[in-house]
Design brief:
Nucleotidyltransferase, domain 5; two-stranded antiparallel sheet; 13 helices; 7 strands
Length: 338
Amino acid sequence: MRLYAGIDLHANSSHLGILNEDNRIVFKRKLTNDLGKVLAILEPFRHETEGVVVESTFNWYWLVDGLMDHGYRVHLANPAAIQQYEGLKHIDDQRDALWLANLLRLGILPEGYIYPKQDRPVRDLLRKRLQLVRHRTSHILSIQNIVSRSLGLRIRSNDVKRLDEDWTRDLFQEEYLFLAVDTSAGIIRYLGDRIKRIEAVVKSRVKLRKEFEGLLTLPGVGDILGLTIMLEVGDVGRFAEVGNYSSYCRCVRSTRISNGKTKGQGNRKNGNKYLSWAYVEAANFAIRSYPVVRRYYQRKAAKTNGVVAIKAISHKLSRASYYIMRDQVGYDANKLFH
């Protein structure tokens, strides 16, 4: 008899449900998040189990890796694409686990991508770099705001990064303002050192694979952004069309239209926020360094606004990078900004 298992995973516990091929409940129980205990519970059903579905939550690594290492066929469920009938009067974690198992039994389970275990640490290290960059940017903006409202001056981001205690003391005689700016300046210097250290480690140990080398020909994409895109994409073959990829990069508007009228919005957060950031960063770099991109930005911004123009460029770059990765070709400006 074929069996199908579903696990509804939470931070400190999980719910296991097992169905047979006739959709009858064989087993259900709440478990603590302990791999040894989960494996011990599943062991009597191992040979009949067709697959185990694990909900894609923030902490799925340990469970999916452990099950796969012990020979189970694991499916990572995409919760954003799963929606139960809203008329159900009672839904709990146990029912959710059985629902996942039933979707697998019916062959209609929306699955997520199980990223290769060996590449996750360096990918997550670059995600940490992004967190530090954003944190540093917040302090840069804070200093710029203080200087603007207190002194009526504008200070460039690069000058903020070079602020030291003597320069800060010359700008602010007021002790409280000096302390506020000097504190942020110290954090900016520290974060800058951490960011450079992460970049040095990543670039010394990870190289662009052959199918991703063409990314460096794309406007605004350097070594770090190229590595970020490569590590976030993993296998470009999992995207059937360019639209699937640009949607995954959050470069497509999430709207619902019926009879020419907007009926609402979908899940705008569906997709990869790190790829979204990478292409926005590339767009900003491209505007500063490539005249053809700058002219396109100026035309678009004149008709809409700067934010929309940046997103339009990031969308173009994401689509171009898809073909570069899939077909292993170089960037062609005539096809992108004609």
